[in-house]
Amino acid sequence: MVRWGKVTFLTLVFGMMAAPLIIVAGVSLNAKKRMFFPPDGLSLRWFPEIFETAKWFEALSNSVIIAFSAGLISVSIALPIACFLWRHKVFYARALFIAGLVPFALPPVITALGMLVFWSQVGFVGQIWNIIIGHGVFLVTLPLVMISLGLESIDDEILEAGRTMGADGRRIFTTVIFPMVLPYMVAGFAFVLVLSMNEYIISFFLGQHATLTLPVQILASLRSGYTPVIAAVAVMFILFAVVVFSLIARFGDLPRLLGAWTPRE
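^ thats the sequence. predicted structure below, dont judge the formating
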């Protein structure tokens, strides 16, 4: 009885989580320009339209450029901060680490409003690099946490062995530390990549309709009417996230990257 109760509960939870994805996927397959579910006929013609229609392709290009650039910026900021806190063990390390978590902990609308005021004062609003920097700062928490986990997993005896062999700090970093934290850097970059592609609020505030990303373009299209292209874009988002995290799970140790160390460690 208890077992059937667990099965029923898990089935309900899984069904509730999967239902929106199934509906969106079904809507994207409508043969006619309607957002019906179940789909009114089956067709894949809305997916190529994302690349053939200028406004959708421009939004897609902007999102890809912003996501990759924001990922590089986040990792570039997070790596030296994490290394500094790990190596020097300063008394204000926890405060610095918390400061790195603040952008992601605050509601995005507050962060976005602050960035909008800043860029308005400087005189640059609606530029793509505004959004790139905004996403890079907002999402820096993720690679900071990931890289910190990687650094904490390094055994001090390995570093001591390197120093005993005569290696200086730079050589130890390039030959020992960097290769060991590289998977964590890649994982942090991947998280920023996926979240930046789906981020709406900061993109809307800083883009100011001059630079549109895919999430902003989706909302703009909803105001002018319903089309299965919107559902097709949503399906692309889902597939993109699945592919990225599947690659990490396949070629990396996802539980360990997320901090679940094994008892042997």
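Residues 117 and 242 are 35 Å apart (CA to CA).
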